Amino acid sequence: MSAIVNLSQLHKDHGDFAERVFKMSGQDVRKCYQCGKCSAGCSVHIFNGMDVSPNRVMRMIQLGMEQEVLNTRSIWACVLCSTCTARCPRDIDIPRVMDALRIEAKKRGITQKFKNANVFHDVFMNSIIKYGRVYELGLFIGLKLKQSGNLFADLEMGVPALINAATRLPKFPPKVKNPDEIRKIVENCKRIEGEK
Ligand code: SF4
Ligand code: SF4
User: Fold this and answer.
1) pTM > 0.85
2) Are residues 118 and 97 in the same domain?
3) Are residues 95 and 125 in the same domain?
4) Is 1 a member of any domain?
5) Structural domain of residue 71, as residue ranges?
6) With bands split at pLDDT 50, 70 and 90, how would you rate the model's confidence at 13?
7) Which of 27, 45, 76, 81, when mutated, tests ligand 2's pocket best, judged by the most ligand atoms within 8 Å of its CB?
8) In percent, how much of the chain has pLDDT > 90?
9) Counting CB atoms within 10 angstroms of each CB, which of 64, 113, 123, 178 has the fewest?
């Protein structure tokens, strides 16, 4: 059964949401005229990885369906490949919109729908902040511990990955020239984000 949407009420309550998304992403979603070309080219959507198609995500923003769109799995499932952007006749950079929605969802603690993507984001960023670039072995261990609390969970599936990690990946954290510079970049990004 499809939900009944009260457009007047939505606009009254959340009419400025498209404007806020514009400020966060630099993309004016109001230009979208729902041709659907983005969704037709999105392989994640085509293979059922999304609960709401990309063009519907755009429409939900236009309608100010803030809570609903921030609660979709689609914003976390998007792999930021930009196929949709290449197809969009209105030149909307959809991955940037998806990214802005993720940041907003994370700020509000709405991450339960795609918890693993969120955990990956945290472990990945911690590795960058700590070492200046990704330390793959540390990423692997950190992910296992954060996702299950058990390094040996899914051992059967993990054995090939462990063998691969032991033989091919660097055993020690990488050394970059100026890790402090990377930390400064991350801190500045966080500061700018906090000012929005
Ligand atoms: S391709 Fe662009 S204009 Fe068409 S539905 Fe997607 S975002 Fe909207
Ligand atoms: S960037 Fe995201 S929405 Fe666009 S085609 Fe790729 S996965 Fe789909």
Assistant:
1) no
2) no
3) no
4) no
5) 9-109
6) low
7) 81
8) 42
9) 178
Nearest CA to ligand 2 atom 4: 84
Q: Which residue reads 């009419």 in tokens?
A: 15
Q: By percentage, how much of the chain surpasses pLDDT 70?
A: 81
Same domain, 151 and 175: yes
Do 93 and 20 belong to one domain?
yes
Distances (CA, A) of 161 to 9, 137, 158, 164: 51, 10, 5, 5
- For residues 24 and 96, the answer to whether their CB atoms sit within 8 Å is no
- What's the CA gap between 33 and 54, in Å, rounded? 13
The pocket around ligand 2, CB under 6 angstroms, is made up of 41-42, 44-45, 54, 78-84, 94-95, 98
So what's the pLDDT on residue 154?
65
Ligand 1 center to 169 CA (angstroms): 41
The predicted-structure confidence for 117-166, as pLDDT tens digits, reads as follows 778 888 888 888 888 888 888 888 888 787 776 666 666 666 676 677 66
Counting ligand 2 atoms within 8 A of each CB, the residue from 55, 98, 99, 114 with the most, and so the one to mutate, is 98
Q: Is residue 37 part of a domain?
A: yes
